[in-house]
Amino acid sequence: MVGLTTDDAPAMVDRDKGLVGLCRKDESFPQPVCYHCIIHHQALCGHFLKLNNIMKLVVKVVNKIRAEMLQR
To answer: 1 and 31: one domain?
Structure first.
């Protein structure tokens, strides 16, 4: 793994207890490149390249997954 994408939640990016912090502290874990909300970048590219129909599907799938996880 070379990258982590986060939504800027404390559980993900906290220096001591977040996923990114824990990964960086672990010497056996490769140093990841961290991204913030890469879906926004993809949406901009999709709009520029006229791929809106694909991005609508991606956003729909992501929202469905998030909604189902909140119900558990």
So the answer is: yes
Q: What is the mean pLDDT of each run of 10 residues along the chain (72 residues)?
A: 72 77 83 71 71 80 84 66
Tell whether pTM > 0.70.
no
* Cβ neighbourhood burial of 68 (10 Å; 0-12, 13-18, 19+): exposed
Measured between alpha carbons, how far is 20 from 38 in angstroms, rounded to an integer?
16
51 burial via Cβ count (<10 Å: 0-12, 13-18, 19+): middle
Domain that holds residue 16: 1-36
CA distance 36 to 15: 15
- Number of structural domains, the chain? 2
d(CA 63, CA 56): 11
